[in-house]
Write a structure and sequence with these properties.
The protein is mainly α and 324 residues long. It is 76% helix and 2% strand. It is built from 13 helices and two strands, in the order αααααααββαααααα. A two-stranded antiparallel ribbon has the order 1-2. Helix 2 runs parallel beside helix 12, helix 3 runs antiparallel to helix 10 and helix 4 crosses helix 10. The relative contact order is 0.18.
Length: 324
């Protein structure tokens, strides 16, 4: 028997994640508040510019989401991002061949650091918080040795600048197109492949997934490698956006990448979360940072408001889950 229309609509509403709905509601609220300060906040040019800026964080947060779904955390993001940017720009100094290989070389460096994280978590059974912090420190040390402690002088390649700052498809920024491609691939892997289902399963209970025949250690290793590659790719885009890399370029992306995933409704304990939620969290954080910059609030005030909003939303989500 076909269910009555009201029942069908009620079932559809129950399928909506309250955290995702809240995040999108806050995005609309921020845009309306911003439009009271300046009408430019609702212009297509401003929205596209914000989505371009959000793309860098979105790609980094994609890797963080995969790791968090495992029930782990990746604290090596700051210097994996820096390694990606610095190694890709360094490769451009090797001549035409180096310029052509700059992007894949930077990504491979990030994958290598991600593999170190994955080996530590999956095979050595070290806490992810400890091993990723250690890898972050090692990466920082290697970059200091590489530059001699001075600011990197190498410039980004033309391809890096084209991807990060260009726009070709009906005025849509290339960085946003890249984020859409990365996001689409992530959604496909998580929803349509055994590997994606294993990531959720490990987050809910690794022992049960292992007993079902899944090589859980390999899944964890590959997931950390992908996260490292995505963080490094984010650093490559940032270097292309600024035309050069900087040693502290990844410091500003650790907390926002974690916050974007959690604000989007993913469980910090793993096993639950949707990519659309991470997208909402990334846009929400980017808009909040933009509005606080536009109103020319001092850095200290910005950090306080930024932190308070994140804490308030996390408390709100926690109360909703307890109520359910």
């Amino acid at each position: 028997m076909k269910p009555p229309p009201m029942t069908t609509r009620g079932a559809q509403w129950r399928r909506v994640d309250p955290a995702v709905a809240t995040a999108f509601g806050c995005i609309i609220l921020l845009l309306l508040l911003g439009s009271l300060y300046s009408s430019r906040f609702l212009s297509p040019e401003y929205l596209l510019q914000q989505l371009k800026v959000a793309s860098f964080l979105g790609i980094i947060a994609t890797g963080m989401m995969l790791v968090i779904l495992l029930g782990q955390i990746d604290l090596s993001v700051p210097w994996v991002v820096a390694v990606g940017g610095m190694m890709s720009t360094a490769a451009t100094g090797w001549g035409p061949i180096g310029e052509a290989l700059a992007i894949p070389f930077g990504v491979l460096c990030g994958v290598g650091l991600g593999l170190a994280n994955g080996i530590g978590v999956a095979y050595l059974r070290l806490p992810s918080m400890i091993i990723t912090l250690a890898v972050n420190a090692v990466a920082q040390g290697l970059m200091v040795v590489h530059t001699g402690g001075f600011s990197p002088q190498d410039s980004s390649s033309a391809a890096m600048r084209f991807i990060a700052t260009g726009d070709t498809l009906l005025g849509v920024p290339n960085a946003l197109v890249v984020w859409v491609v990365v996001g689409g691939a992530t959604v496909f892997v998580l929803s349509r492949t055994t590997f994606g289902r294993a990531i959720y399963g490990i987050g809910n209970g690794e022992r049960a997934i292992y007993l079902s025949g899944i090589q859980t250690q390999r899944v964890v290793l590959v997931t950390f490698a992908i996260a490292g590659g995505l963080s490094a790719f984010g650093g490559i885009l940032l270097a292309g956006y600024a035309s050069k890399a900087a040693q502290a370029m990844g410091d500003a992306y650790l907390l926002p990448s974690i916050a974007a995933v959690v604000l989007g409704g993913a469980s910090i304990l793993g096993g639950r979360g949707k990519y659309i939620g991470t997208v909402a969290g990334v846009i929400l954080i980017t808009l909040l940072q933009s509005i606080l910059s536009v109103v020319q609030m001092e850095e200290t005030g910005r950090q306080i408001i930024y932190g308070l909003v994140i804490i308030a939303m996390l408390l709100l989500y926690g109360r909703e889950r307890l109520a359910r």
